[in-house]
Recover the amino acids of this structure.
């Protein structure tokens, strides 16, 4: 399991750690944390961070490689904008374990597992389920990779272009309607 990002309260790393340690995955798996910790937060989490299955990597420049080697990306955010890391992870073959607030483009039970914000029990169950059911992990990974091409900048550009076209067409239709209404009320004299 992998977490990537600034290790701060709003990212929910404490939820991920607690859920990881509740899961049997912590007995024979590894939880990698790639990112810098806020000092007070690291101090508060020190007992969980010292578990032998938890590896704090600090800031990394090899995140794509870490993602390709990981089964799961966890992002149990309390609040988030739009976490690009989740799209990068999907493209790298990581199954997402994310909170509803993570801003991830995914669907629960189709290509990811999504839990309510702060629900450590649900996250622990998701970790355990994927750890014990490799077939489910592979099914979610395959579904995620099959739709990952929808998350590229090219795909976003196509979607934006379509929205512009629809907006322009609606605007033009509205102008034509307004012009017809004006002519009906006050015919133009030549």
């Amino acid at each position: 399991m992998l977490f990537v990002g600034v290790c701060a309260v709003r990212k929910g790393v404490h939820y991920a750690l607690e859920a990881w340690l509740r899961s049997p995955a912590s007995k024979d798996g590894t939880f990698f944390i790639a990112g810098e910790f806020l000092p007070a937060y690291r101090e508060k989490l020190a007992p969980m961070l010292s578990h032998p299955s938890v590896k704090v990597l600090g800031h990394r420049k090899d995140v794509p490689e870490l993602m390709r080697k990981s089964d799961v990306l966890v992002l149990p955010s309390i609040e988030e904008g739009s976490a690009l890391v989740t799209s990068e992870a999907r493209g790298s073959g990581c199954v997402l374990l994310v909170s509803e607030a993570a801003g991830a483009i995914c669907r629960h039970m189709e290509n990811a597992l999504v839990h309510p914000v702060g629900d450590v029990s649900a996250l622990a169950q998701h970790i355990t389920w994927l750890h014990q059911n490799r077939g489910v992990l592979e099914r979610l990974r395959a579904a995620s990779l099959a739709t990952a091409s929808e998350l590229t900048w090219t795909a976003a550009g196509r979607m934006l272009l379509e929205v512009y076209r629809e907006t322009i067409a609606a605007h033009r239709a509205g102008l034509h309607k307004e012009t017809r209404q004006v002519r009906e009320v006050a015919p133009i004299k030549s």
